[in-house]
Specification:
about 80 residues; mainly alpha; two-stranded antiparallel sheet
Length: about 80
């Protein structure tokens, strides 16, 4: 359960950070690699849909990395 909280905390932190700086890797590279349109005129909550997609990519990727690190540290007894 604590791992889920770690994932969500990191997810929302990187989601917000990417909304402020959309060129943050690796979300931008994944978005470009999927050959999705670079300039989407569709707006979601006042921001470009492309920016929101990139932010979700970054949130998920960095959230999974943080969750894996947390799980490893917890299993080794470093975190309790």
């Amino acid at each position: 359960m604590k791992g889920a909280i770690v994932f969500l905390a990191v997810f929302f932190i990187f989601l917000a950070a990417t909304l402020a700086y959309p060129d943050m890797p690796p979300g931008k590279q994944i978005y470009d690699g999927l050959n999705l349109p670079a300039d989407i005129s569709y707006q979601v909550l006042g921001m470009s849909a492309a920016t929101l997609i990139i932010a979700v990519f970054n949130g998920v990727i960095y959230g999974i990395i943080a969750w894996i690190i947390y799980t490893i540290l917890e299993k080794r007894g470093i975190l309790k």
